[in-house]
Every structure is written in C-alpha cells, then in structure tokens.
Amino acid sequence: MTEVYALEISSNVSEFPYEKKYPSSLTLGELKKKLELVVGATSENIHIELHDAEGKFVSSLTDAAKSLKELGVKDGMRLHAVDVSGQNAELQDDSMVEKYTISDDQYDKREDSVRAWKKKLLAENAAGHQQLTPERGDVNEEIAKKIKVGDRCEVRVRGAVPRRGVVAFVGETKFKEGPWVGVTYDEPVGKNDGIVAGVRYFQCGDKHGGFVRPVDVATGDFPPFPIVGDMDEI
C-alpha cells in the first residue's frame, strides 16, 4: 500500500500555508502540475524547497522524475513553492495592501479573545488559591472535561501540521503527570498503537495512536482529510 504524506504547502505568493495529502509515489513533476493554480505559474517556473517540520530548510527539489519518497520527503514536512518567473512579484509587495490592525489596548478590551479566556482562567484559579501551570494543567484539566471518548477531533501541535482522528482516551497516565488525550489518527501519523511504556491505554493500529495535551485538541465536525485533491478542496 502506498504511503500517504500529510504536507504543509506554502508559496511566495501567499502568506497562508495549507495542508494537503499526497501519495509518496507522486513525482515532483506531477506535484508541480497540481501547484500551478496555487502559485499562478506554469510547472516549468515553479521551484520547490523542502523544509522539515520545524521549518528548517532541507533541500531544493529538482529532479522532476523522482517520487516524493525518493526525494526524501517525509510526513509532516513543508513544501515551499516559488514562482521563479517573476510575474507574480507584485503579489509579494504588501506595501499597497491595506492591513487590518488592532492596538494592544483594543485587543485587551475584547471579550472573545484568547487573552480574555486566559485571564478568566487565571482569575478563577487565583480565587481558589491555585497556581496555573500549563504543564501541570489547570487549563488542560478544564479543557479535558469537555473532551469525550469517541469525539472526532483535530490535533494542532505547534510546529506540526494538523492531524485528525477520534478521541480514544482522556485522563491521567503513568508516563507523565497531568491530563492527556489519546487519539486514534485516521492515517499512520502517530507514534504508537495505544501502548506507552508497556501500558495499554486504547487499541489502534500501529502508528495510528498518539497522546497530546488537551489544549492541543479541538473536537467537532472534523472529517478525515482528503488524500489527493485539486484547488476546490483547499
């Protein structure tokens, strides 16, 4: 069975990257064809750079006949597409773009912001003389109460592409203190099969399981990512 890579796609004509899934057998030439509408250039004028999950440059991909796997691409990496024709240079000049800005004071007054939510939790914990520590997890404990086994979810860990699956475990573990969420991923993008340090917390296929903090989990209507699609799926 052909491997499927969940990759982050970025370009020099857009500041917003997105995630796509491609089979490892896809050649660089075929990939460039799929990115023509994204970059706004023909495949001959698209240069691809490979970056790791941490954002570090790995290499420039030049052999159009080689597959993603042969080029060293791995799940979770980022592909940066650059239009070398120069025809889209004006799109990169943001000096003429009117930007939406908000002052720190204005943001501080908003009640629907992340900052306001954190302040609320801090105030609640201060009233109870509790210390708020993300790792120990008063915030994680509050979020964990709203996560149920069987929920569809999306895992959003900083520095990694989003992953989707089903919540398989919520609670304390023996490998590290604090609340954890065990997830059965739709694709083999995890690190285990539900077992950590010899203890089984849930059942799933090899590399389909993973554990993350509740703060990194969003539950809701998150269907599996499409494997390969065109622009109408972005």
UniProtKB/TrEMBL annotation:
GO biological process annotations for this chain's record? cytoplasmic microtubule organization; post-chaperonin tubulin folding pathway; tubulin complex assembly
Q: What is this protein called?
A: Tubulin-specific chaperone B
**Membership in a protein family:** Belongs to the TBCB family.
The chain positions of domain CAP-Gly read: 171-213
Q: SMART domains per the record?
A: CAP_GLY
Pfam families per the UniProt record, alphabetical: CAP_GLY (PF01302), Ubiquitin_2 (PF14560)
| Annotated localization | Cytoplasm
Q: What is its main location?
A: cytoplasm
Keyword ATP-binding in annotation: no
> Which molecular-function annotation in GO is an example for this chain?
microtubule plus-end binding
Q: Which GO terms describe its cellular component?
A: cytosol; microtubule plus-end; nucleus
| UniProt key word Phosphoprotein | no
Q: What keywords is this UniProt entry annotated with?
A: Chaperone, Cytoplasm
Q: Which organism is it from?
A: Trichostrongylus colubriformis
- State the PROSITE patterns in the record: CAP_GLY_2
Starting at the broadest rank, the lineage of the source organism is:
Eukaryota, Metazoa, Ecdysozoa, Nematoda, Chromadorea
Q: Where is the signal peptide?
A: none
